[in-house]
Amino acid sequence: MSSTDTLTADESADIRARLDEVAERTAAAAQASGRDADAVQILLATKTQPAEKIRVALEHGFGLIGENKVQELVAKADDLADLPHESHLIGPLQKNKVNHTLRHAQCIQSIDSLDLATKIDNRLGVIDGTVDVFVQVNTSREDSKSGVAPEDAEALVTAVRALQRLRLRGLMTIGLPGQTPEEIRPSYSDLRELSARLIDSGALPETATELSMGMSNDFDLAIAEGATMVRIGSSVFGARPTA
């Protein structure tokens, strides 16, 4: 399958140009925060985006993609299978969809309960596998968002770390959709500070330093607050199509 099967040359070129722009902004923000230009990974948030658009990004050298829904992760897998990439689940995971997720995702960023983590670990025991995970923390404390409360994060992190088949990479959050930096940044600084405290206490292993936070409208601020992975969708692909 070619990425130009249903996209025009101009549409493909636009995606590549936006990818390059996001990469430049990410590198500049990393350097401004005192880190190397390549210290922050770009994960392409591909919710409702068709496989042909994702293929353009993969062919352009961006190999990290994230899906919000398991059914989309599964549906696009065959169309992307011939291109090297790593798939993350970045949305809520229902326990009855764990099996489908483990067939196609190399990382699950939305671990928000011990019940879910244990279900995943048990299934991995059956198939003799492992999976990378992030613990999702609800730093904005919005009822509409998933994630463990910050004050409960240490207990969950400790429990997840004890599960032998889950490789804990760090913490994830979805920031507050504020209008100003003063509104947005606390959700991200809180996650950075929480990570540091959990590493200092020994709850998080010293290698689990990754912070997945920041999206198209605020990823520069997230990087300034220590993000090591930003989830970019509309800045690359444009407005989401109707699902």
From TrEMBL:
Gene3D superfamilies (alphabetical): Alanine racemase
Pfam families linked to this entry: Ala_racemase_N
Similarity comment: family membership: Belongs to the pyridoxal phosphate-binding protein YggS/PROSC family.
Keywords: Pyridoxal phosphate
Role noted for this protein: Pyridoxal 5'-phosphate (PLP)-binding protein, which is involved in PLP homeostasis.
Residue ranges occupied by any Alanine racemase N-terminal domain in the UniProt entry: 51-241
Cofactor(s) named in the record: pyridoxal 5'-phosphate
Annotated GO MF terms: pyridoxal phosphate binding
Residue numbers of N6-(pyridoxal phosphate)lysine PTMs: 47
Protein name per its UniProtKB record: Pyridoxal phosphate homeostasis protein
